[in-house]
Amino acid sequence: MSSLGSKRPREEDSNDVSRPRKRPGGAARVSKSETEAVLQRQHQRAEEARQAAATRGVEEVVRQHYNAVPQRGRDWRKTDSRIKGLRSFNNWIKSTIIHKFSPAEAEAEPYPLRVLDIGCGKGGDLGKWQQAPQPLELYVGVDPAEVSIEQARERYKQMASGGGRGGRGRGGYHGGGRPPTFHAEFFAEDAFTYSLGDIPVIRDVGFGPGSRWGPGGGFDVVSMMFCMHYAFENEVKAKGMLANVAGSLRKGGRFIGVIPNSDVIRSAVVAFHAQQAKNKPPDGPSGKAEVSGQRNDEPAGSESPPYIIGDQDSGPPAEPEANASTKDTTHAKHTEGADGSEVVPGVTPAINVLTEPSSEVNGDVEKPKADTASTKDDRLRSSPQRNEKKDDEQPEPEVAEWGNSIYRVRFPGDTPKDGIFRPPYGWKYSFFMEEAVEEVPEYVVPWEAFRAIAEDYNLELQYRKPFAEIWKEEQNHPIFGPLSERMGVRGRDGGPLLVSDEEMEAASFYHAFCFYKI
Ligand SMILES: C[S@@+](CC[C@H](N)C(=O)[O-])C[C@H]1O[C@@H](n2cnc3c(N)ncnc32)[C@H](O)[C@@H]1O
């Protein structure tokens, strides 16, 4: 498997072979120098382990987290889950996006789809693809969490043996019921670091940049549900991810997905800074460096270089991040803009001001580091206690944090005052979602910057919408309306919404998108 960026880490053979213990009393014959040597080796090993843990990549943290998420049965998810409304709603959104963007282009000649699901997890979307309006012939699932991949394989096998539940008549779009009509393969692979062109079935279908002289990829749809934000740790990963997406798609193919909405993040961050300014004593400077869309590694006051797409070291222009309501028209360019202080309608997260150890370096603000997420305990440290300042202590910087009893977002350090994240990579926050995500590091995907970079890969924006708007627009659709009832988003016969306000606020953190490969 070739690497897109770095070299594949080799799995070292474990040297941890237990030796037989010395018999009792044997220690007495070990000399002092031998004991010292053993202690020194132990010390060295402990130090190596500490260093390994400190440098453990974010991908490793994410992989381990998803591997450890228990697989719960559908009955549990439908009855015992505290967030069953949110689960149903998110599944309905995914089904709707899959349905909307995998129709036959030439209705007269429908052909079976080839779908690549990057970050497929435990195969939760297999049933949705089974129920897509256009039949599939091939589904390829890729995810670095090998336990999840095994569970996805098992799920497909169960579907193939007719063991799935639900189906169109019983539970909507996410069960199966009928054996799948398509062939499926699953691979444990990091799709941001390694080229997917090395996976035999993907190579067979077709993989490559493509040009007007030759073919590109052979997939009709690449799907990335709740996954792409992990790629924005750095430029190499984000572009590695895009090279895999674009390399897999045929001309005219679609790239669909859902991710956290940077407009929501920006609104929350801007509101946080506004609150900070209000709390500031009226006289005198705060002494705090202001982060206002300037690269963190530049001296304060220097001008940002012009943004060149694809240039390793350039950030995007002070991006007027798009208003999230792009028109749903094929090939429509995303043109709406919004000023930096806009708050996404209907989504004004409550901001908590917590304190955190300083990330300021020499008056400049250090960009969030790509290290592991802070622990839940860190997160729950109460602000009043930490605000107790002794006279000789420097005031601790405060960090943006918001959420409710279901979800929580928290930046570990400073954030740009205008909510514009430049450069567009590496803006880490920790994310907690009840029953689903335990304090995993995620990265802001600054939308306009991402859209511009995607164009470099011949991916043109076709659709982008926040979840809440999708619900508003599609709830009475002749297909998606009844589907929402079958999936438990609302009661039967146009009954009440079964998603609580807190669940809807958590869902409103996300938006969905579709790009078109030109
Ligand atoms: C929130 S889960 C979503 C799973 C599934 N798409 C869904 O919607 O239910 C995010 C998934 O992204 C996967 N992921 C994280 N880093 C990845 C990478 N480098 N390549 C591919 N998948 C990745 C995780 O392992 C995890 O399964």
UniProtKB/TrEMBL annotation:
GO cellular component: nucleus
Classification via Pfam families: mRNA_G-N7_MeTrfase
Residues binding mRNA, per UniProt: N90, N91
Residue intervals of the MRNA cap 0 methyltransferase domain: 81-518
Function, as annotated: Responsible for methylating the 5'-cap structure of mRNAs.
Family membership: Belongs to the class I-like SAM-binding methyltransferase superfamily. mRNA cap 0 methyltransferase family.
Keyword Nucleus: yes
Reaction(s) catalysed by this chain's protein: a 5'-end (5'-triphosphoguanosine)-ribonucleoside in mRNA + S-adenosyl-L-methionine = a 5'-end (N(7)-methyl 5'-triphosphoguanosine)-ribonucleoside in mRNA + S-adenosyl-L-homocysteine
Tagged with keyword Transferase: yes
Record-given protein name: mRNA cap guanine-N(7) methyltransferase
Record GO terms (molecular function): mRNA 5'-cap (guanine-N7-)-methyltransferase activity; RNA binding
Entry keyword set: Methyltransferase, mRNA capping, mRNA processing, Nucleus, RNA-binding, S-adenosyl-L-methionine, Transferase
Localization annotation: Nucleus
Natural source organism: Cladonia borealis
Bias type Basic and acidic residues, positions: 8-19, 328-337, 364-392
Site (mRNA cap binding): K122, K128, R155, H229, E442, Y510
EC code(s) of this entry: 2.1.1.56
Spans annotated as Disordered: 1-56, 275-401
